[in-house]
# Entry
Amino acid sequence: MEFEDEGFVLAARPHGETGAIVEVLTARHGRWVAHVAGGASRRLKPILQPGSRVRISYRARVVDQLGSARLEGEGEGASALFDDPLALAGLAAAAAVVAGALPEREPHDGAFYALEALVAALAHPEIWPAVLVRFEMGLLQELGFGLDLSRCAVTGSADDLVWVSPRTGRAVSAAAGEPYRDRLLPLPPFLLSAQGGLGPGDIAAGLTLTGRFLQDFVFAALNRPLPPARARLIERLGEAGRL
# Structure
């Protein structure tokens, strides 16, 4: 079993005295876990940071075996964000969610290109939190749990959509949802249209919305909570007044 591909490092942990076990989201082959010889070296450590763009050469003697990989860095990767700790936290959170949500060895090119777009957006502090919410929306769609925000689940109208049903993932209009507002999730306008704009509390509402469905429909089935890196990011966004 051999392949070469481009990818993003999702996670890395030490293995033995000099190696590392690394998770990589590839463009054409999905999420793969591999042993990287020399992963603890000064040369490779910067490449193994979550969100680093790499070229991976993977090899295993049999398909089900943990294979080995050679990684080469492409571009600045995570190092370009060293002066922006909040953006680094956003990158770490996104990588942790992908690592926890995507099945191994199953192609998900949509997830790869969504992560690529998010990494590019992290250089723009004013927009990347909203892009992160859209990224999580896209990840849900990729996994078969996309939200239907096109029209009200009750009336069929496409107007005045302000809620989402936590049970069905469908939008609900203000009038239809008013009697049940305590049971519904707020729908921030920027998720309905690129021209929706961002208001106070919209990022918090968006992350609450995506977090609810990621937990209930993805992570609960895997018997695990949402990654701690995501909770730390939300806390830091709140401290920075970015929610």
User: Anything to note?
Assistant: The chain has a mean pLDDT of 94.
